[in-house]
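Quick one: sequence plus calcium ion SMILES, need structure tokens.
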Amino acid sequence: MTLPKKLQIFSFWSIVFFSIVFVANSCSTDSEAFGDLNAEEEPLGDNMDPDNSDDQNGAVTNDCPAGGDTFFAESSGLISIEFENNSFGGDWELRNDANDVSGQGYMVWTGPQRLNQPGEGMVTYLIQVNNPGTYQFLWKSSFRQGDNGTEHNDSWLRFVNANDFFGEKASDGSIVYPNGSGKEPNPEGSSSDGWFKIYRSGDDNSFIWQARTSDNDAHDIFVTFSEEGIYTMEVSARSSFHGIDRFLLFNREMFSRQAAIDAADTFSSENNCD
Ligand SMILES: [Ca+2]
Ligand SMILES: [Ca+2]
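Reply:
Sure thing.
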């Protein structure tokens, strides 16, 4: 009689466990709360070089990718890419119903929210870096549903073979690293497996250049490429109806934030492997 009894207990606790997991997932809420609504856009200082490590998390190659993968080359410290200029699967939709976007429009995720589960609707951008250094990441995005700027305002971002990937707060230089990166401290709010949740703030749903992580504690986004080579950037779906028009990476030693945004108006990175 002991085995059936154990099985009964096991079954009982399995049901309890999975019920808890289910409820926890069902109740996942997404909140940067009100804190980042009032976050100021603060320009970076000129000499805020963080203590970057040279940890190598994956292979960097100088070979052009096979199979016609979408591929972009950095030039003079700038990478400027229309987000929609790639192959999209899943529930990404191309739209062009806004007058403050460029290229063919913007992409929006119309599938289920993935608030704590990065990796759905994965899009990969291969980036050839010729001027190694630390680059700031920005994207131009908007929330395309409702009027609450903390909803539908974020997606996931990861660099799998960069030398460092971190958030930095302009006001005090504090640093955060993604959960799962093996580095600390980690951001407030969701992050896992090397991914940052990247959000934009404010209830005005125009497309704005802004990319931040850590809820109520906005940190700008940086990635370090320590040597020339081809790096992999990944975006995946988080909030539904987050519209992304384009993105920028600029070498912080070579560009101010505003100079990079101004340059992006007339510059798009090109495929050097054709
Ligand atoms: Ca949000
Ligand atoms: Ca666009």
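The CA atoms of residues 198 and 213 lie 5 Å apart. The chain has two helices and 16 strands.
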